[in-house]
Design goal:
Radius of gyration: 22 Å
Structural class: alpha/beta
Order of helices and strands: HEHEHEHEEHEHEHHEHHHH
Bound molecules: guanosine-5'-diphosphate-alpha-D-mannose, manganese (II) ion
Distance between the termini: 51 Å
Shape: globular
Number of strands: 8
Largest sheet: 8 strands, mixed
Number of helices: 12
Amino acid sequence: MIVNKVFILAFTFLFLHITVPILYYYYLKTYWYPANWNISIKNNFYPKILIILPTFNEADYIYKKLDNIRNQDYPKTNIKIIVIDSGSTDGTSDLVKKWMRNNKDINIILIKENKRRGKLKAVLTVLSNKLVKDSDIVVLTDADAFWDSKALLNLAKYFSDPTVAVVTGSIAYINDNSENIYRNFYNIVRVSESKIHSTPIHNGPLQAFKREIIEKIGLPTFAGADDSSFASYIAFAGFRAIQVDDVFVYEVQRGNPHQRKIRRAQHVILNFLLTKKYAKKKKIYKRTNFEIIWRIEWFLTIINPWFLLISSCLMAYLAFTSNVVAIFTLILGALSLIFFNLFKMWVFQQIYLLFGFIKNFFTRSEIWEK
Ligand code: GDD
Ligand code: MN
């Protein structure tokens, strides 16, 4: 009898865990991915762009990164770069100075902080500086992320619409195919959500903001706030925070990938736990269609990983009681982990979210190793 109940529970959790994201994905892919943007897009739109590049020990990439910005198909007179370096010990700031000497035709400023206080604090420091004032668009990026040469050009046009306040690029990884399969899946989801209204998960390697709007409503400053909470906060204010599919960023893989993904998961979880409250506290919250997207993504991020964990534990228990269906399901799961890459990435992501959730009780990872 007990076994029967456990059996029903195990399969209900597994069923929900799998069907909710699959139905959501196919719904988005069928109805929204091919839809129009419902945005008034003006081509040949060249707003003044300020690029903020926070760095900590980026000697390996900084030169190449600045070259990559320089090589954008965008009028150089409308680009300004601010590098904010937080006490790098590997000569990053000397390399920036060298680059400045060799590229006098581009407007670039180096700000040096003596102490490392994390990326969020560095970015907020720059944003509070009056140097930001004369720009229309503020772009955040990472030193190890490289943009497609048309990235700024393609991105700028979306800002011609008055409702668009944040635009993020789609991510591709250099030399890692499995990662790309998984990314494509997410890119479709994020772009589709953006066509409905906004997506609550954004990509720090390229995220652009309308300066006027962030000046008016501010940005989240709670510990652990990041790309996604910036976007969600602005979407809660009623503006669009979108991921577009004609702007690409290539990210290099470095450091321990598991550690990095757990930290990313921590920040995404903090977004879902804190940003809506923060928007209400700041009295900028407006109810829009974004609320529905938020709730589904909230479920997928905060709740759904636990469903997988619970059903796996129950399934293991049933397997011990020699339940044939449970044993068969576990074997099927194990085989899928080996042969079905997307499934493997999915399960790993659930594990990162679980670890991230627990790790948040101890630290919000405001400062991190590579
Ligand atoms: N100024 C400053 N101070 N910059 C920093 C600091 C700091 O304390 N810590 C990191 N950075 C810079 C890095 O030099 C890099 O340019 C950028 O912030 C992103 O850091 P990475 O070490 O490359 O982290 P990632 O690849 O995992 O970044 C992703 O996750 C982060 C959140 O966990 C990206 O999406 C980031 O945009 C995101 O903030
Ligand atoms: Mn990085």
